[in-house]
Every structure is written in C-alpha cells, then in structure tokens.
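ping. complex inputs:
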Amino acid sequence: MSTISAPGTDVPPAEVPDYPMTRAAGRPFDPPPALHTLQAEAPISRVRLWDGTTPWLVTRYEDVRALLADPRISSDGTHPHYPHQSPATKERRRQSRTFITMDDPEHARLRRMVTAAFSIKHVEALRPAIQKIVDDLIDAMLAGPTPVDLVQAFALPVPSLVICALLGVPYADHDFFQTNSRILVRGTTTPQQARAATQLLLDYLDRLIGDKLVHPADDLLSTLAERVRDGGLSRREAANMGMLLLIAGHETTANMIALGTLALLQHPDQLARVSASDDPKPIASAVEELLRYLTIVHDGRRRVAREDIEIGGITIHAGEGVVLANDIGNRDPTAFPAPDRLDVDRDPRHHVAFGFGVHQCLGQPLARVELQVVYSTLYRRIPTLRPAVGLDRIPFKHDGTVYGVYELPVTW
Amino acid sequence: MKVIVDQHKCVASGQCVLTAPEVFDQREEDGIVVLLTETPSAHLTDDVRQAATLCPAQAIWLAEQEEREDRE
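pong. complex structure:
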C-alpha cells in the first residue's frame, strides 16, 4: 500500500465500502442495493477495490455521462492509479494493450483502422446472414432433446459465428477461443491463468494474421494484416486488436442473449409485447431497454483524472482513479422514470450500457442487429420457451467482468 | 436549423445514422460522419437534436439551439 500515493488514500478504511458490491438475493436483474443508496446519498464517493486503492465511484447518470465524455479524464491503463477490475484484468492489459486503455491520438489511430466494418451500412448488410445463423440454431434446438442449455446451444454460438465470419476466424476453433476468453472475463482468474490464456490467444491471432498476410480474404483480420504490410501496425498491435475484437465480439452479446431471454421470461407481459411484434421499431426499442435494464458490463468504466475536476461539490484531483458506474447510472430516476421497471415501450436510447465518450463500444451497431434478430425470432419460433429450473437454481455470473448466466436450462 | 459536424472528433459509433439517416451518413473507408445536408427540413429537427444528444464524441451541434438559448 505504501506505493500508492494518490491524494485521499488516507481515508479511514472503515468508512470506505468495498467495490464491486453484492446484488440482493432474489433480485438478479437489479444492481446492488448499496449502489442505489450511494446514488441517493453520496453520488460521488470513495470505494475500496481489490488492491486496497480507493478511487472515486460516480453513480448518477448525468455525472457518469459527463465524466465519460470529459477530455480531462484518461483511459490510460498504464497509469499507476488506473483502477483495474481485478488482478487478472490488470495482467491481461499489461500483456495486451489495446485502444480501450489508450488515449487519443493513439486510441483514434488504432480504432479508426477497424471502424469501417462496424458502420451501420456494413452491419445492416450482415442482417440476412445473422438471421440465417439464428434460424439454423433454433432448428437444431427444436430437433434436439429438452431441456437444453440455451447458453451453449444458442446464446454463445450466435455471436461467435458472427464475429468469426466478420474477423475471418475459423469457427471450428470455437472451443479454444471461448474457453480462454471465459478465463479472462471471470473474476476468480489468477494473474498466472490470465497470462497463460492471453498468450494462447495472442499466439493464435498472430498465426491467423500471418495466414492472412499470405492469403488475404474479405475479412477484418485481413484488413489488419494489410496494415501490418503497409507499416501502419506492428504484428503485435494487430494480434492485440484481433484478440480484443474476438473476445468483445462474442462474450458480451452472448450474455445479453441469455440474460435478456431470462429477464423476458420473468416478465411475461413484456415478453408478450416483444413476441407479438414483427415490426422492427418496437423490437429495436426493446433491445435498448434490455441493454439499459441489464447493463451487463456491470463493474463500472475505469478511468484516471488527468487534471483536477470539480463535479457535484467534489474535487477529483489529477492522478486519482475514477469508476463510472454505468449500471446504476442506467437506473437513475432523473434519467429514466421508474428505472427499476423493465418497460420495453419506453425510449431509453440515451442509456450508457455501451459507455459514452470516445470509448463508447465500437461493436454496438453489430450487437444491436444481433440482439434485434434474436429477440424478434427466438420467442416467435418457440412461443412456449421457459426455464427448466427455478430462478434460484440458475447460476449468475456475479464474479464476472461481464454479467450474465453460466447456464440457462430451457424447455418448451 | 443549421447542423455542424466535426469529423476529427467523430468515433464512428453510428448513433446519428440510426437516429436521422436523412441527415447523416458514414464514410465508406472508416465510418466517420458525413453530413448529407447542413440545413435539414423542419420535420427532422427532433431527430437531429436527438442525434446530437446521443453522439458519444459530441461531434454534432445545432446552430438553432444556440440562437434559442440567446433569446431566452
């Protein structure tokens, strides 16, 4: 602890709550109650992380949004006071630096190399292929026995097949990359395990990029290989970026599919509104509401102040860590009336489930289309879909950097 | 209403194209914002205002808003 010299770390330990906090029993879709209390009573206050550091936790929607877009806030993961999520995350970010933990101009240089693939037009062009993937997986589920684990049979394969096609990664390798990705997003992973999984994935991506250098195809890894050839990227930068896209491309959406389905099954009136409609507009709106309501990236966006920032009567000093709690921000009653109610008819597009500011999720247009196709198809094709076990027997990813369910046995 | 975009600030999130496709497009090579019209017709005002609000990089402004604030 003696190496930590950020101002404010001399706060008495007893007064600083640990973060992340625990969800209430039987309320798996709601953020921890302690976050509601902080939002109401101390919206910018210190919390204690796994390594004993005490960054600021920001819990009100307006403050979260303002700070995520504030140029005085840095995403530099190499800063000594950057509030890492876990020892494993810290190790992975040290080993594999990507634009997620960089500031401009470096961040913009790297991000702009891959933004074309996620433009609205490009992603819309993938919709028929995504629809076919979803239809085929549902056909296979209907032809198989019940109960079936929706995560393995559907939620994980949908985004994995999509991101594999987009990147040019062979889907046949899905066990390998899903297993190692899972290690990296699990909260219980040790730094040693994270290092090993990161290295395996980096070696794998580097090999694929090597292949694309020789045999370029119409995919994103070939685009990265082209940048390597013209000197715009190092081989290592290309592998780092490929790994980021592969993990982010399947883990997050897979959790939104399974957890979103479970949330809808627990709210039959809302599910009825979704499955009754084949109009794209209400479906798109339901996707936004589930993104807001579930906010699966539930351990806050991590930043460091690069200058002193006055906000809400508090001074965040230069060099202090900041955690922007977008999950509770998305439940702020000043931004979303009756925020704890799942209401697919509301217009919540201003939510911060994808973050905000220049680091807002690169893959959000793709995630939206995948979720729109899934939510508009699954419950229409299997109208009697239901969990095969009680809510109390479903294992939730409380420990993960991405929230969701480990498995979801369903029947129909 | 006059719309102003900053291509340097844009991060190609596509929020504006989803919100007001009559006014905004994205460059083919990198998804960066392209303004289709500087002065969209009045019925698009709400959509353009929402696009400006949703833009994560705050790369969209409405000149009309500033004038209104001046008047108030």
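DSSP finds 16 helices and ten strands in chain A.
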